[in-house]
Amino acid sequence: MTDTRKPSALRGLVGSRTRTLLAPRVTGQVRYTDDIHLPRMLWGRIVRSPHPHARIVRIDATRALAKPGVLAVITGKDMPERFGIIPWTPDEYPLALDHARFVGDAVAAVAATDERIAHEAAELVDVAYEVLPAATDLQTAIDKPEVGLGKGGKDNVSKEVDLAFGDVDAALAESEVVIAGDYYYEGSAHVPIETHCAIANLDKNGLLTVWSTTQVPHYLHRELSRVLRVPPTRIRVIQPPVGGAFGGKSEPFSLEFCAAKLAMVTGRPVKFLYTREEEFYAHRGRHPMQIHMKVGARRDGKLTGVDARTFIDGGAYSSFGLVTTYYSGQLLTLPAFADTYRFRSTRLFTNKPPCGPKRGHGSVQPRFAFEVSLDKIARALVIDPIELRRKNLVPPNTTTLNGLRVTSNGIEQCLDAVERASGWKDRFGKMPKGRGLGVATSAYISGTNYAIYPNAMPQSAVQLKVDRSGVVTVFSGQSEIGQGCDLMLAVLVADELGLDLGSVRVISGDTDLTPVDLGAYSSRGTFMNGNACLMAAREIKSKLVAAVAEKLDVDPRNVLVTRGALVVVHDPARGVSVTEAIQLAEAKFGTLGAVGHYNTPKLGGEYRGGTIGASPAYSFTAHVAEVSVDARSGFVRVEKIWVAHDCGKALCPTIVEGQMEGSAYMGAAEALLEEHVIGPDGLHKGPNLLDYRIPTSLDVPDLHALIVESEDQEGPLGAKESGEGPLHPSIPAIANAIFDAVGVRVDRLPFSPARVLSALRKKQADEQATATAAAE
Amino acid sequence: MLPLPVFDHHRPRTLSAALDLLARLGDKAVVLAGGTDVLPNMKHGLVEPDHVVSIAGIDELRGISLDREGDDDKLVLGAGARLAEIESSILVRRVAPALAEAAGQVGGPHHRAMGTLGGNICLDTRCRYYNQTYFWRKSLGFCLKKDGTVCHVVRGGSRCVAAASNDTAPALIALDADLHLLGPRGARIVAAHDFYVADGIKNTVLEPGELVVRVSITRRPGRRSSFEKLRRRNAIDFPLLSIAVRLDVSGVETPRVDAADVVVSALGARPRRVRAASNVRPGTPFDVAARELAEGAYAECKPLPNVDDDTEWRREMVPALVERAVTRLEG
Amino acid sequence: MYDWNDSVPFVDASGHAISLSGGPVRRDFARRVRPIKVVDETLRDGLQSAAGHQPDAAQKIDLLYAMAAIGVDVVSVGLPAAGLANAEDCFLLCREIVRSKLGLVPTAAARTVVADVHGIARAADRAGIPIEVYAFIGSSPIRLAVEGWDTDFLLGAITAAAREAKAAGLPFCLVTEDTTRSNPDVLRSLYSAAIDAGASRICLCDTTGHVTPYGIEALVGFARHTLDELGARHVELDWHGHNDRGIGLPNALWAAARGVDRVHGTGLGVGERVGNTSLELLVENLGLLGARPRVPEARLVEYCELASRALRYPIPAGHPIAGANMRGARFEVRPYRATPEDASASEPLEPMEKLVPMCMKIGGSAVALAVPARRTLLEALRYDLDLVGTKQGCDKGDCGACTVVVDGVATLSCLTLALDADGKEVRTVETLEGAPHIDALLDGFDRLGGGQCGFCTPGMLMTATALLDRNTRPTRDEIKCAIAGNLCRCTGYGKIIDAIELAAKIRRGEAEAGVGLPGIENTPPPLPSNKSSREGRQG
């Protein structure tokens, strides 16, 4: 908790509720990508395939080029280079070369002097297709290998993972109770309020600058260079502030390549702005998963074995699919687990917009199946669901079944916190008809040991420039997508060097100005970027202390950094202002500057895929959800969600609470409202914000964020992630609360009123049947 | 962004100027009031006018008042009245509560601040195969309401079954409201019930160049009304089902229902007046009326997969909403 | 270089000018009152062309664009009476002209029979554009004898057809086939009947390729003289000649020089027994003679190629514009590469859309701009005024990110035409005061984490501004209802509602403002001279 006892001068910014300094960003003074207009800028528009699966026979651009205002048209032939975020599965082209693989797949691109003309010109590009048989749902992809979307066209398999730890069959055999269930987790989209946007400009020296709403400027920089066949030294990628991403902007997309190519062809800046519909075609959202899971337990509640068979609907391309398939099982072994475990997951290609990483990336779906199974076991063994979890917790400082090294682990405090806050003990099972409580837990990675392309260089780096005026500028490769990493760095530097936020600047996401950071994904921001920043800040601090110690003729160990001044420990009156300390250090050591970096230690099990899920630290979360279910209509209303999250140390409590509430809210939305559904004809059911519904302010539960701090040994000042972890338990907690409220299990997402009502009707019918049977 | 087509913009100051303009421009012109229905449809290529006539600024169309006509009190609402004004108007809440409740549940707060009563009355019918972008509709092969010849809701159907999705329509019908129209052929009054026709492509009797100018609702003593809307979210969404109930009640201590009218909408192109409501016997107790009307409505209403595909559930919700609307009126 | 085209008439020994036209040809063009229009008949059905191939609708539309690209003025869209498919194609072509604003005047052929004219009227209604009726009838003695017609029959047919066109509000042109071998008296009676019945155009035809420039000189003179006599100076003349004697093109140029208003041609000269005047050469030559703006070479090549593909008629190797022999001379045109920008230099340089001036009051200061009618307020703010604080999330009213305050009302700027905000006060996030006197809402959002990615925040701020302007003490539920149209994906709305509550308190003076603003303690005092301006500023 914040050390409020200390006098304000000594109290650090870390742990206090500082301002987020967002006023310039929300009043148009700081420009998001679409806010940038360059002189003589052209508008681009992508020509998309209307067929779910087709061979591209011929593209004729004559009519488009005949239209006044149209300057250029490019097709797949202009960039015939495969790319993909995972180096082992590059299966995408900027513009489809010979096959379109889903309705909305990019086939050509036009550039015109005006947005309307670009839209009309796209309709004038005549593409001749030869329609091919398509697999537009998971079951068809399984049943019809002849559609041949996989490698070599012999089947539709994208990735297969089959891992086992211990003898599961034996464990299940001697279990008192084995709960087997089929769960279907529906796909969902990121729906950031800002859609994808990219601008490219070739300056008169031939330097290509690309502005983009990306989460991974470094990977985009590499892929642009490879696909455009332009040396990386002649490309600069700038990532302005991003209007929400949630994983949907963590790989290169067609619009970035098309903007760059058209800028090079026409010699004029080109802007591509996806419409909301195109955002659903770019997708990379939550993978739909069909999970059959068996969980065994002994009479006393000790979990014996878990066996899962999962089919994953991957969509048209691989994207992060290889990693997702591992995540569909690897992270289940925390926080509470059994002694043996086997999971077999198969990711299949389908003619649908490609799925990828959405907040929680692949471990949200199995978590739902597992935490609901635990609830079923608790009911079967008549054990309190929270107690069942307490009986199986993995302790701190240990290694899990599948080789994940666990350091700090605050799951017990999390369970205590939500139990107390929700009044679980005297309300669970005792609520009036139609109201119920449900609990669920989860754990998540704080960054991953697995760098996307194998290299020995640091995964994150920060550079500090210290100016004699007292301004310290932090240059960080990290991507600010709304998760608050810029402010986190400012607070860390301010506390280390005794500054206030007004004299710290943070420049991030510019491959010319900032050192390499791999990007905003797998919740690595705080842990890796924070550590890199601390390393650099401490190097500067030691120089300031040395210079002041020399001036005041004291031992450096007795110099204390406070807000605004460096003072002598037991004689605070004697001291030097920070600005003067900087000038003294600059005089003594020469111009001040420092570079900090971070690399994870060697982690993960010694087996193929062992490094996926291996993280330097794990966050832990427990949720209790309270719901009311209207039996007449099937409407489920989530009244409250208590979220207890072990984030190691809350560097900026306001932001951590924001991430916890935002995650729980996004999870509740997937549980109740969202479904990213593609029809049998390959057409998205409703690619707009009216048909694809996300909650409004009138559809959201009261969210209570309870911060738990387990002070991680390796985290920056003990901090761990809080961006993705808190999402996982939302869905199972709501499912379990529904059962507690009306006694029905809805094992398929979303829990729409129609689905809940039909489950209630079925339950009433079964009860009648058993009643009449008993009566005879 | 979604660019609008090229057109000429006209902003007549007075009603007569607007009508002359519309008469001259004929079916090449489109009327723009709040813009919350026409502009999205233009951005989807569903409406491609050469002229847009903006009438939001014409003050003659504003205003909500209670006029005495003979021995009847008539609530008169200008077609230009904003839905937010209707929602918060004391007069409307007293005389036509169903209309106030309906206006209060249209879209989100911004839609209600911009949208007008006339605009909502003339709302284009909706269907999930129609209200999509040009690219989407072209990939689908279009539908018979726009650019195509096939219906994707009723296989092989030749008639458009897009749903009337305006919340004020069922309320106005249940309240026996009169719509005052003005056009090239002069003024005429059409009962709300007769204003709508069962044609998904154009579900009103409005002629080219004709405008809805005013709505009048006669105040009846003992008349109560309520409105229920079924949607997945509590804002922004169009109705999956909307139900207006009007009861003529007598008796003070134990109120009895003497007459009823139940109108169910968002099923097909024309809001449906439930026949069972007309044979409610005077003096029926509330709970009996509630059950009768609910069962009658359930029997007559069979939703189509035009706005959603949970048709079974939407049908289940008809009696639930009718019952809730009726019991709320017991007061 | 001595250009004989421009030469002064050659004077013989006796001072008598020997010149066919009595002066340099170029001068004739310069003297013209009305500019020469070019009519493309390639798509008229039933061309009895040797190829006889009927292009499909898409290819016809391709040709339409190519015609527009080379500056064709009038286009025949077919013969609707020839069949259902022809009528449908005719409608599709007209709709394409309307929808893409191609600026082509459509005409359709018809026999001088009421039913044919009625067919054209129906097509015109469906397409929503008037189609000129070109009604043809045989007028030479041979034809009359063969058909067994007499003049009265001709007069009756022409009058009936012309009246029908007039009734349908369509311009009517009388096309007298084989004019160059018709009797002047017959012609005079046909013309007067047609004009009386409302004809506005006469087409002089050399359907048998019989005439020479000398004949044209006489015929055009006779036609002009007859129209003057009939007091029908407004009636225009067309020329339609064939290539039987290989002089179709010079004849057409000559007719243009001698004052006809429109000259006809077909792509690659396709049609009739031995071909029509070739349109591309007609356009090229009229350009060279200064009678029409020059058309870039590449566009003419494209026209020929498209015509050749549509009509399945190979381009002769020696074709002066698109022939294979000529192609070597020019750069290799890649199908999808852009033609250089200046290629369209010859197009008339006026804005593609009409701009309408308007004025708005934004944060206390008047702003004037000119916008196309289709411009939404959101586009005007972001593109024209560079006020990029207002964001676009869906552009059709589903998300609220574009909310601004118009005359005190929170409004979706993506569903408001810019011209409908003319003369109104528009408040955007740019008008909110910054530090040190930071706006209460900005202050609240900043201190309580009301914004994470910040993209929905502008919409939230303006919605809340309108709310707090009318309700100084909103309950949490009232705040929830007010922002129910503003979608946020990051926060879960909780901290946004807290922030708005705090802002309400700050505006009521019940909470301290600007707490923790960096450097607020040492804000410079306002300059004494414009201190009053400090208070006067509405922000």
Automatic annotation (TrEMBL), chain A:
<feature type="domain" description="Aldehyde oxidase/xanthine dehydrogenase a/b hammerhead">
    <location>
        <begin position="27"/>
        <end position="133"/>
    </location>
</feature>
<dbReference type="InterPro" id="IPR016208">
    <property type="entry name" value="Ald_Oxase/xanthine_DH-like"/>
</dbReference>
<dbReference type="Pfam" id="PF20256">
    <property type="entry name" value="MoCoBD_2"/>
</dbReference>
<dbReference type="InterPro" id="IPR036856">
    <property type="entry name" value="Ald_Oxase/Xan_DH_a/b_sf"/>
</dbReference>
<dbReference type="InterPro" id="IPR037165">
    <property type="entry name" value="AldOxase/xan_DH_Mopterin-bd_sf"/>
</dbReference>
<dbReference type="Pfam" id="PF01315">
    <property type="entry name" value="Ald_Xan_dh_C"/>
</dbReference>
<dbReference type="GO" id="GO:0016491">
    <property type="term" value="F:oxidoreductase activity"/>
</dbReference>
<dbReference type="Pfam" id="PF02738">
    <property type="entry name" value="MoCoBD_1"/>
</dbReference>
<dbReference type="InterPro" id="IPR046867">
    <property type="entry name" value="AldOxase/xan_DH_MoCoBD2"/>
</dbReference>
<dbReference type="InterPro" id="IPR000674">
    <property type="entry name" value="Ald_Oxase/Xan_DH_a/b"/>
</dbReference>
<protein>
    <submittedName>
        <fullName>Aldehyde oxidase</fullName>
    </submittedName>
</protein>
<dbReference type="GO" id="GO:0005506">
    <property type="term" value="F:iron ion binding"/>
</dbReference>
<dbReference type="InterPro" id="IPR008274">
    <property type="entry name" value="AldOxase/xan_DH_MoCoBD1"/>
</dbReference>
Automatic annotation (TrEMBL), chain B:
<protein>
    <submittedName>
        <fullName>4-hydroxybenzoyl-CoA reductase subunit beta</fullName>
    </submittedName>
</protein>
<dbReference type="InterPro" id="IPR036318">
    <property type="entry name" value="FAD-bd_PCMH-like_sf"/>
</dbReference>
<dbReference type="InterPro" id="IPR016166">
    <property type="entry name" value="FAD-bd_PCMH"/>
</dbReference>
<dbReference type="Pfam" id="PF03450">
    <property type="entry name" value="CO_deh_flav_C"/>
</dbReference>
<dbReference type="GO" id="GO:0016491">
    <property type="term" value="F:oxidoreductase activity"/>
</dbReference>
<dbReference type="InterPro" id="IPR016167">
    <property type="entry name" value="FAD-bd_PCMH_sub1"/>
</dbReference>
<dbReference type="InterPro" id="IPR016169">
    <property type="entry name" value="FAD-bd_PCMH_sub2"/>
</dbReference>
<dbReference type="InterPro" id="IPR036683">
    <property type="entry name" value="CO_DH_flav_C_dom_sf"/>
</dbReference>
<keyword id="KW-0274">FAD</keyword>
<dbReference type="GO" id="GO:0071949">
    <property type="term" value="F:FAD binding"/>
</dbReference>
<feature type="domain" description="FAD-binding PCMH-type">
    <location>
        <begin position="1"/>
        <end position="222"/>
    </location>
</feature>
<dbReference type="InterPro" id="IPR051312">
    <property type="entry name" value="Diverse_Substr_Oxidored"/>
</dbReference>
<dbReference type="InterPro" id="IPR002346">
    <property type="entry name" value="Mopterin_DH_FAD-bd"/>
</dbReference>
<dbReference type="Pfam" id="PF00941">
    <property type="entry name" value="FAD_binding_5"/>
</dbReference>
<keyword id="KW-0285">Flavoprotein</keyword>
<keyword id="KW-0560">Oxidoreductase</keyword>
<dbReference type="InterPro" id="IPR005107">
    <property type="entry name" value="CO_DH_flav_C"/>
</dbReference>
